Amino acid sequence: MTFLDILRTAIFALRGNWMRSALTSLGVIIGIAAVIVMVSVGQGTQAEIDKLVSGLGSQRLDISPGAGRGPAGGARQSASSFFSLSEGDGDAIRNEIPEVQYVAGALRGNTQVVYAENNASTSWQGVQPDYFDINGWTLSNGAMFDAQDYGSAAKEVIIGDTVRRELFGDDDGVGQTIRLGRVPFTVIGTLAAKGQGGFGQDQDDVVMVPLETGRRRLMGFMGLPPSAVMQIALTVSDAKDLNYVQGEVEALLRQRHKIKPGDDDDFNVRNISEIVKTRTATTDLMSKLLGAVATICLIIGGIGIMNIMLVSVTERIREIGLRMAVGAGPSDVRRQFLAEAMLISLIGGVIGIAIGIVGALLVGKFSDLPVALNGRVVGLAAAFSIATGLFFGYYPARKASQLDPIEALRQQ
Amino acid sequence: MNARVPVIATHALSKVYSPGSEAEVVALKGVDLRIERGDFVAIMGPSGSGKSTLMNLIGCLDTASSGRYECDGVDVATLDAEELATLRRDKIGFIFQGFNLLPRMSALDNVAMPLGYARVSPHERRERAREALAAVGLAERGTHLPSELSGGQQQRVAIARALINAPPILLADEPTGALDSRTGEEILALFKRLRDDDHTVVLITHDADVAAHADRTYVMRDGELHAEGDLPHPDDAALALASSATSAGPGTAGTGAP
């Protein structure tokens, strides 16, 4: 029998019991759909990480106050360790480590923004000049803060696109006065929209003020030491210096903070690989769950296929006997039933791929998880479905091939 | 081959079911049988006489417990299941009492089916199946399903299927059992025509009237094969001699023509 003959016979046999075949493939359909969603989420995450690594991310270090998350995990930190970083640390880094390209300290908090009858709750960031370059912010309208604004704690604000839309609708709002909490600010610029961040948060739901402005007018009293910052971000000119600079920064800050050898740091320097690690943790869990669903469904689906194939062998025992009498060898019979099992499984796979693609698109639309669909995903799913058919179809096919033609012909 | 090799040659062929157990059944006791190409032979016997066992052995569906069977010169004892299937495909055309057509396939596809296992190209398969159907007088019925054909027509489709690989042996098991007597006569007439075209027909039946159409008749009784008509009794030393000397040509045993 040629491949086409086997296929034709298999289609013929399945069509005779199409309802049964369709129900049998249900497990495979669900399993393959889960495989598609799982792999596309995994690839989406990978693509995002690649983007991150290839972009500015690979040149970036983030310094935050407090000890690194050691074995103690969520131990409470004192106020002094919470504000252990200062503007001076940032200046020292800029002055003493020549490989550093940009450095900026930042403060942040939440506030209510009000313009006329519109108000929204958003977060503010008090920043130093390099902050915009480090984070890839550009203006869509208006102007940047100038040196005087930074120095004088000017009541000027640059607003993110979401805030602009909520307060001004289609207007750019430049030149208008808005209130942050109770303090009136002049809008001098609007940020170009960045869209969703890596965790699905709205990056444009933000307002920017100069660091000093944030400290004096928005922070309120929090036991804040003068010139403290909550974060220092920096970039290096050349990504290959990143590890070296990280070491230098750590050494410099230990020295400035007078930390004795053997004592824990009161700050935490994170590079891209650590950020990637946190980011993959969520999608890893999701992938594992979907993988479990896919595995269980494929096993159950496969057992269903095995069951139906065993029924089919019993039903068609006379046909098998006849085919053997006219010259079908055990291998011909085995191949025929294997082909039928694989066909059920493959049809289930094709439907599952369609459902999985729709599912992946829905996940991308309604959740924070990044999704990437491509031909590799589909190929992998098809391979999985064929493998399921092969694995679970083998036993019934072997059983059919080992039938005694005399017994088989005698059956009614 | 220096002489015509008999298409069926058995020597002391025996079959024992469940040997060594209490349920041991000796179904076949030392059967010696020679059938030449172009013979039309009937094997008769009541049920339980071992005739089905003999048919299964001759049809290469089963292997003997002891003794030899050469099917068209091939010793079947050495073959595995896969090789037996190939041998059946090439050497034996089966015709069953119940026709055994696949109900959802057209007559043409039913006839062509064995060619698939012989790796014949689809185009040639259809051509040959058409010819085979024409040879049994059903050229116009190729597209019909078995359920759309009469019993006699179905049996002729089955005969066309048996003929499709041009096997040296046609093995017919009660081929007229499910047919009325007039249709049965037609089928038997077809067998005679095939015999005249140098096909070998082995007819297994319990019906003496059917067996009477054959050129020679054997009778199975209690696992032993007895000759009727012109063949010497199987106990005859001459036959035993002739059968054991397998390389010899047709010897003292009769070669067919009545």
Describe the structure.
Chain A has 15 helices and 10 strands. Chain A has 412 residues and is an alpha+beta fold. A 6-stranded mixed β-barrel of chain A has the order 2-3-8-5-7-6. In chain A, strand 2 and strand 3 form a beta hairpin. The radius of gyration of chain A is 32 Å and the shape is elongated. Helices cover 33% and strands 23% of the residues of chain B. Chain B is built from 8 helices and 10 strands. Chain B has helices at residues 51-58, 81-91, 107-117, 122-135, 151-163, 181-196, 208-211, 237-244, and strands spanning 8-17, 25-35, 40-44, 66-71, 74-75, 92-95, 169-173, 200-205, 216-221, 224-228. The A-B interface holds A 1-2, 4-5, 12, 16, 318-319, 322-332, 405-406, 409 and B 56, 59, 61-62, 81-82, 85-86, 88-90, 94, 96, 100, 102, 104-105, 113-114, 116-119, 122, 161, 165.
Mean pLDDT of chain A comes to: 86
Taken in chain order, the helices and strands of chain B follow as EEEHEEHEHHHEHEHEEH
Q: Tell me roughly what share of residues is in helical segments of chain B.
A: 25-40%
CATH topology of the domain at 39-63 and 77-231 in chain B: Rossmann fold
- As for the number of domains of chain A, it is 2
Strand order of the largest sheet of chain B: 6-7-8-3-9-10
**Please, what is the CATH homologous superfamily of the domain at 39-63 and 77-231 in chain B?**
P-loop containing nucleotide triphosphate hydrolases
Task: Determine the strand fraction of chain B and express it as a percent band.
Answer: 15-25%
Main β-sheet, spatial strand arrangement of chain A: 2-3-8-5-7-6
- The run of helices and strands of chain A is HHHEHHEEHEHEHEEEHEHEHHHHH
Helix content of chain A: 55-70%
State the major sheet of chain B. 6 strands, mixed
Query: What can be said about the biggest beta sheet of chain A?
Result: 6 strands, mixed, barrel
Q: Which two chains share the most extensive interface? A: A-B, 22 and 26 residues
User: What class, by secondary structure content of chain A?
Assistant: alpha+beta
CATH-derived architecture of the domain at 39-63 and 77-231 in chain B: 3-Layer(aba) Sandwich
The rounded distance between the terminal residues' Cα atoms of chain B is 25 Å
Low-confidence stretches of chain A: 68-77
The number of distinct helices of chain B, counting runs of at least 4 residues, comes to: 8
